[in-house]
UniProtKB/TrEMBL annotation:
Residues 358-371 have a biased composition (Basic residues). It comes from the Bacteria. SUPFAM superfamilies: P-loop containing nucleoside triphosphate hydrolases (SSF52540). The lineage of its organism: Bacteria, Pseudomonadati, Pseudomonadota, Alphaproteobacteria, Hyphomicrobiales. GO terms for cellular component: plasma membrane. This is ABC transporter ATP-binding protein. Residues 12-269 form the ABC transporter domain. Gene3D superfamilies: P-loop containing nucleotide triphosphate hydrolases. Residues 347-357 have a biased composition (Low complexity). It comes from Pseudaminobacter soli. Signal peptide: none annotated.
Amino acid sequence: MLTGPNMDKPILSVEHLSMKFGGLVAIGDLSFQARRGEITALIGPNGAGKTTVFNCITGFYKPSEGMIKMNGRGGQEFLLERMPDFRITAHAKVARTFQNIRLFSGMTLLENLLVAQHNKLMHASGFTVLGLLGIGGYRKASAESIDLAKHWLEKIDLIHRADDPAGDLPYGAQRRLEIARAMCTDPELLCLDEPAAGLNPKESLHLNQLLNDIKENTGTSILLIEHDMSVVMKISDHVVVLEYGRKISDGSPDLVKHDPRVIAAYLGVDDEEVVDVLTAVGDEQVIEELDAEPDPEHGPSASSSMMAGPISDTIAHADEDEIVKVSPGASKALEYDEVQALSTRTAKPAAKPAAGKARAKPAGKPKGGRK
Ligand SMILES: Nc1ncnc2c1ncn2[C@@H]1O[C@H](COP(=O)(O)OP(=O)(O)O)[C@@H](O)[C@H]1O
Ligand SMILES: [Mg+2]
C-alpha cells in the first residue's frame, strides 16, 4: 500500500512554527516531523499549545510565523499555513477530531458518516440535479459512500445502532463515531485531539485497538494529542513534548518518558527542586543547560495560570488499576518517587496527574532556570 513518490518523506514537517495571541506566545519556534504510517503523539501539560498546533495545521488559525509542510501520497507538497481550511481537508486530506465532541447529535450514525462524504458525493453529482437523480456517477458514489460508512460502523462496533441518533450514544461511543466520521473522508493524516478524554479503561483499550487498526490497515498516519499515558506510551511510535509552547523533548516513547525535563514538567516540581530531580535522574548535561539564563518570553503568563488544572489529581496505573492520590500539599519528592516507582515497575509513566499542576503556580512567577 505504501508506495509512491513521497513515501520515504515525513508526511508532516512543522518548521519554526510560532503562534502569538497578543502578548502570549502560545507556540514558540516549534519544529517537529511526523513520519508516514506512524502514530506521532503530541503531549504536554494543559495550556502547552497542543490544540493550537492542531488549529494551525488544519487552517483554523494562521500561524504568526513558520511553515507546515505536508507531503501527499501522490507526490504533491502542500504548504498548509497558506491554505484555507476547506482545501486542507479536501486537497491535502487532513482530517481532525475535536477536544469537545462535535457530532450532528440529531442525525443518525449513518447520516453523520454520509455527511462527512458530502464533498465526494457532490463531485459525483457534477453539482446538477440530473446528477443527483442518478445519471452519471452519483448512484455509484452514493452506494460506495454507504458501504464505506457501514465499514466504519462495523469497525467501531456500532453497526447495530446505525439508525439511532448520534446524541443517544454513550460518551465513549460518540468518541469512536467521531473517529469513524473522520476516516470516512479517507484522510492521509488524521489529527485526534484527546480522543481518550473521559473514557473508562475498557473504552480506552478499544480506542488503542482502533488506532492500531487504522495505522496497520489504512495507510493513514496519525497525529495524536493525548493526556492518557496508557494510550500514548502503548501505541505511539514517536512522541513530541511541549511545555509553554516550546518543545522540551522529542523521540521514542521510551526516550521521552525517561527525559528529566518531561518528568519535571509533568510533576510541576518547584524550581528549586528541578535540580534535585535531575540529579536523581543523573543527567548532568541537562542540569547545566537548565542553569543557563531563563528565557523571559515564555514563562507562565497570567492567562496560563488561569488554565491551572485540578488541585488534586490521580495517577492511574493502567495494568493493575492502582490509583495513587496526589494532594496539593503532598511532598513533591514523594510524588516523584511514586511516579518513578510506577514507571520502573510498569515501564509506563503515570503522567496524567500534574498536567495542570505546572500551571498552578502564581501568575508571572519566573520559572527559575527552566527552559
Ligand atoms: N484563540 C485564542 N486566543 C487567545 N489565546 C489562546 C487562543 N487559543 C489558545 N490560546 C492560549 O494559548 C495557550 C495554549 O492553548 P492550547 O493550545 O489550547 O493548549 P493545550 O491544548 O496544550 O491545552 C493557552 O494559554 C491558551 O489560553
Ligand atoms: Mg487542548
